[in-house]
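In response to the reviewer comment on reproducibility (Comment 2.3), we provide here a single inverse folding case reported in full, input and output, so that an independent group could reproduce the run without further information from us. The structure tokens appear first.
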């Protein structure tokens, strides 16, 4: 059965740049890249990534759809904004990198189990539940993401830091029972649902 996403993507079949422009946050900027390489040279993680932003923008224009969507390079961006501050064409590179990561995730193309993707999902799920991130349940979810035994090992390894945070009143064990929530939790959730609906309509998915 063809999904709404597949139908929406089919119309861009032979033009990945157009697809990126229509579906990726700030994607319409990609065509402005003049391949000077300043972003690649400025990125503190550049040498450790498969593809620099400069290369990713070149690959998008060359129609290398699968290679771009499947790489984990976008997931490595730490939002340091070095590239954006230096780009002579003023491309919002950081936002495009996150937009591409989000798009590949929506299409189910992003690398499974990529650590930053896992963190982002746990953070998002935790945050929208109560309208704010609960530090304790977020930390526990991170410790136990690879199973119970590994979770206990992680907890024991980090116990010194945890106790230090509690002593400094930066971590409250009572947060396990829910902790702070925003005043209008259901209002936040409705807002997110509405934003999703608008975005899906914009992309022609509904
Ligand atoms: S610095 Fe800007 S113009 Fe230069 S390669 Fe990077 S994105 Fe393109
Ligand atoms: S914002 Fe991301 S892509 Fe840009 S220099 Fe920093 S880590 Fe690299």
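Designed residues, in position order:
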């Amino acid at each position: 059965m063809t999904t709404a996403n597949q139908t929406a993507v089919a119309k861009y079949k032979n033009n990945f740049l157009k697809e990126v422009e229509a579906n990726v946050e700030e994607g319409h900027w990609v065509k402005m890249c003049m391949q000077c390489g300043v972003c690649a040279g400025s990125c503190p993680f550049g040498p450790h990534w498969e593809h620099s932003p400069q290369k990713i923008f070149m690959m998008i224009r060359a129609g290398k759809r699968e290679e771009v969507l499947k790489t984990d390079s976008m997931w490595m961006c730490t939002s340091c904004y070095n590239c954006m501050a230096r780009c002579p064409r003023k491309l919002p590179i950081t936002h495009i990198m996150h937009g591409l990561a989000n798009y590949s995730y929506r299409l189910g193309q992003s690398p499974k189990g990529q650590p930053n993707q896992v963190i982002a999902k746990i953070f998002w799920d935790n945050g929208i539940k109560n309208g704010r991130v609960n530090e304790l349940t977020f930390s526990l979810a991170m410790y136990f993401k690879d199973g119970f035994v590994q979770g206990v090992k992680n907890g024991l390894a980090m116990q010194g830091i945890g106790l230090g945070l509690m002593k400094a009143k930066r971590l409250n064990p009572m947060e396990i029972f829910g902790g702070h929530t925003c005043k209008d939790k259901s209002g936040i959730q409705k807002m997110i649902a509405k934003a999703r609906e608008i975005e899906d309509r914009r992309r022609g998915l509904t």
